[in-house]
Structure formats: C-alpha cells, structure tokens
Amino acid sequence: MKKMNVMVIFGGKSGEHEISLISAASILRAMDKSKYNIITIGITKEGIWKLYEGSIDEIENGNWEKIAGRVRKKKGFGGDMCLLPIGKGNGVVTLSNGKTEKIDVIFPVLHGPFGEDGTIQGLFEMMNVPYVGAGVLASSVAMDKAIAKKILQADGIPQAEYDVITFKQYKKDETEIINRIEDCFEYPIFVKPANMGSSVGITKAHNREELKESIKLAGKYDRKIVIEEAINGREIECAVLGNDNPIASLPAEIIPSAEFYDYHDKYIAGTTRFVVPADLPEGITEKVRDMAIRVYKLLDCTGLARVDFFVESGTDCILLNEINTMPGFTKISMYPKMMEVTGIKYEDLIDRLIMLAIERFNERNPNKKN
Ligand SMILES: Nc1ncnc2c1ncn2[C@@H]1O[C@H](COP(=O)(O)OP(=O)(O)O)[C@@H](O)[C@H]1O
Ligand SMILES: [Mg+2]
Q1: pLDDT digits over 59-110, tens only?
Q2: Is 296 helix (H, G, I), strand (E, B) or coil?
Q3: Are both 190 and 237 inside the same structural domain?
Q4: DSSP classification of residue 159
Q5: What is the CATH number of the domain that holds 242?
Q6: 260 CA: nearest ligand 1 atom
Q7: CA-CA distance, 250 to 357, in Å (whole number)?
Q8: Does residue 272 have its Cβ closer than 6 Å to ligand 1?
C-alpha cells in the first residue's frame, strides 16, 4: 500500500508553543513510519512557517528553528514566506530536494490561539486537505469561552454562573460594572479573557480591588471578558475521540498545588498531581463521560477533545468548565493517559485520529474522495 503523506505542523504563535514542540515530538516518534511518510512544518513564535527536515530531538529542544528552511515556494507562488498553495485540488508542498508532494492529511499539533481556534483550520479548508481534529466552527466556538458557555447553557449543560463584559464597556462604566458584578456574584470571582488558554490572564479575585485588577489583566488579552462564580470542587477531565459516534475515556483528576490551576502550577511548579483514572463513585464517572459526549456533540466536535469539569464539593454536581479541541498530546499528557487507561494505546490513537480526519473530509466532500 502506498504510504500516506502526513504533514505534522508544530510550534505556533501561541503561548503554548513549547508544549506543542513536545506534543509533536511524541507524536512523530510514535507514528508508524511504514504507513506514513511524514513531512514536518514548524511555525515560529513570530508566525513564520518553515519546512523542517531534521531530527525529532531538535524539535523537542527548540533547536529546530535554526536548521529549518522556509517553506519552498512552488513555481508561480510568490513571496519569501510562501505558505501552502490554496485552491486547486489538494495541498502540495515542495521539499528541499525540489520534489513536490501531495499532502494526504494534516496533523496540526498546535495549541491555543491560531492553532486550536479555527483560524488555521480555515486555511486547511481552503487548501482542501483533510486535517486532524475539530473543524473551523467547533474549534472557534470551543476557544471562545463566552460563546461556548452560551451555546451549552441553551442545552441545559450545568456550568458555573457567569457573565460576559467587554473591556471597552468596563473602561467606560467601571463603577457600574463592578457594582453589577458584586450584586450578582460573591467573592471569590474568576475573571478570564474569553479567548486564551494555559490559564493566561486568569485571576481569582477575592475583593473589589482584585476584581478591578483582574479585569484590567484579562483586558490585555482579549476584548471580551468572562466573569465566573468560583466553584469549590474537584477538577475532572475526560477525553473524547470520534466523529459521529464519539467515545469518552475514563475521567482523570487534576489536583493543583496552588489555589487554582494557574499558569505557574501548570507549567513551572511541577507539583500538580494527576490521578488517572480519577477515583470517583461509579455513578459520577458515568455522568461525566455522558456529559463529555453531549458537550462534544453539541459543539459539533470531530477527531478529539478534552472536556473539563468541576465536581462540586457537597452537592456532587457536575459542572462543565471548558473544552479543548487540541489538548496537550505528549506521551504523559492527560488526553493520551486517559485514553490509555481506557484501552487505547498512544500509537493507535494517532492512527485513529488520521482515519477520522479522512472520514470527515470524505463525508464533507462526497464527490472528491481523498
Ligand atoms: N469557575 C471556576 N471555579 C473554580 N476554579 C476555576 C474556575 N474557572 C477556572 N478555574 C481554575 O482556573 C483554571 C484555568 O481556567 P480555565 O477556564 O480552564 O482556563 P484555560 O483555558 O486557561 O485552561 C482551571 O483549571 C481551574 O483550576
Ligand atoms: Mg483549562
């Protein structure tokens, strides 16, 4: 059988650039080289796309950038930073040996804004190439905490009480908005930029002064800000895999070492505890898995997503927190770990994701089988 050309894209402009490098290195090591012919493209933090033909280790340690060349331009496509040709047929890429390869599937191992938010997915649609993960709509809705909440609320998915403000409104009517928030919520209050990730720009405000500061901070990252009731409970995550008939993994628990799972706790302290699978009563485990699938379908997710919840102390209420359509994918990341304890090995996961990408593409393009 002819090998499939899989383009793995890593790096990216978001704050999760480094995680992407580690995720991509893990994926590249695990991909079956007898089935896949792998083409790697790295995106620098500045957003420059570079064709990379070096070793996997250099991706992981960040040195790839120095040795990578820019994506070669195909005849007729101008510009120094030529991207991938759009329009006619499926995407092609020109390698450094001058050979042009047709891309069968793209695996965008990119987290956060510009990787997981529908923007790059739009580019893949324009290129007319199958790609791993959620489509444009599901990616962008899941990235926007305010919109995701609204859609899921309409379908009765339990969530923390929330409100959405714009930074512009806040700057205009600061006192009125602060008063309104204080009328509706009790401290502590979570303040988040609507579109971010990695806990960047998120604060738990304990009083009026902190609330003002946290809105200013969130306003640095987005024009839209989500205000949320703080939930006292356990943080539970669930991995979902599939297109029309998705499956949910056994859930896992995150036990942050800080007051909440903030940026420092996530990426620097290294003291967070992960319990996979989570030690939950069976009834709760099943409810979490069911709700994860419901959320996944409501947002029209495909491929994969990690759905994060709180299980409230005292009430055992399961409340949705957020959906990540390209969760961390290193060998020790939560998503693969949860799938592993559910019976799906890392290598098989990659095969399945590639097949799901092709299945989705073919369903959407019935006249143009890939
Ligand atoms: N309403 C809330 N109640 C309690 N903790 C919260 C709440 N919202 C967020 N957190 C804490 O903040 C962390 C980051 O928030 P989250 O909404 O998941 O943003 P991100 O997309 O950056 O991961 C969560 O993992 C959790 O520890
Ligand atoms: Mg989160």
Answers
A1: 999 999 988 865 555 444 433 333 455 555 567 776 767 777 888 999 999 9
A2: helix
A3: no
A4: B
A5: 3.30.470.20
A6: 27
A7: 23
A8: no
